[in-house]
Amino acid sequence: MARLAAQVVDSVKHEQNPKFQKSEFMQLMRQLRDGEVIVEKDDIVPKDATATTAMDVKGKGRAVVMHDEVSSLSTSSSQSHGHPPYQGSEELNAAYMEQAMDPHEAYFRQENAELTEYWNAHYTGPATRTVPTVQEKNSWHEMQRDWDAFEATTLGVKPVANYQFQTNNPYLLGDSSRTQHHAMHMSHSQRANENVLELEAAVQRDPSNAAAWFELGVKQQENEREAKAIQALERAIELDPTHLPAWLALAVSYTNDIHRLGTYNAIREWVLRNPKYEAVVSRSSLAADARGDFVGLIDVLIQMARSANQQEGGVDADVQVALAVLLNATEEYAKAVDCFLTALAVRPDDWLLYNRVGATMANNGQASDALGYYFRALDLNPAYIRARFNLGISCINLRRYDEAASHILDALVLQDSDGIQDGTGMNDARGVTSSTLWESLKTTCLHLQRADLASMCDRRDLDGAFVSSVD
Questions:
Q1: pTM of the model
Q2: Structural domain of residue 417, as residue ranges?
Q3: pLDDT band at 56 (very low <50, low <70, confident <90, very high)
């Protein structure tokens, strides 16, 4: 009891209310803690007491009636009245119950009532109000909504990425033999023919498959849908933080989204989790630095590249890509081009690399030089929407507006083909066609002094724009 009383006193030591601190309950707790009183059978008595009455812990100058006396009173009262006490008046019954009740139980009941009243008045509002107000309900709904918008992942607590799938996907309703295992068995060339609907179906069939999410994210990159690409790639690394290609692809998307710190963190995670270069990383301070030291991370990547050159097999294309992406984020485009070209020498049929070389050259003011790399990417993958769109942007910069309009319109048609046709037309609410492409096409049409085509861009009238451009 002394130990428990000490815990009670310690737990409320910061309570400033004088009535609470000087209450009889708190005085009793202190006396129990300090050993001034003890519990003997059912009574609270002074530690050295020999009398049959307990001390007045309430401090009101009266002794507490002992249990034996109460029992005697209860017996005599019951016999003298000849009936149970509850059959008399309410006042007499209350008086009788107060006498008959265990004195300690009565004491704690009174203290409990006082403390309950104090707590209700100071912490939970008036005791009579049991129904929350409209404002409180709205506040709780807002808190619940904000809470639901976040989730705990292997990377910490972060906003929920709710990837929006296209509805009525025919690949979910049909044969699943291909979509169930595509991520494990699909080659680089086969992925060119895989459409978004097939990849979304694969993910919906197996939501915990990190490789499937990665393939979907890369495809959305190719299709110039950066937001969806980021959502898919982030889900891939949440499911499997050791999936190195997903970290590298995510760094590319963050760079395109002008998220420099995101690019740094993704490349840093790729480096730290790469078992091939543990020795190089262990000699650096990279593991302890999460502040965005681009120079330090570039330095580690250069050491990794040198280490790869000294090993059997020579150049590691992934290291060169990681270095190029990081250099793009720091706007060192000439160096980034060199890194991409080095990787391209190892992977001469990689259409992603051809596009990245062209895009980096365009960022460096070399729009004319970029065209050849875009065309080569499209030779390898004619359905590569991002390369076709980038080709259109370079043509705009070169003031070749007719060609630009044609390339961007082709990119929109390809995006549109990845949607689901129904009785009412395309489901644009799902972001099948990109607003970025429409705005770029509108700009091109205005340069061509084709206000009619520009107005179709505002309405996203793809059929009208296509027919008018052919005419």
A1: 0.63
A2: 349-471
A3: very low
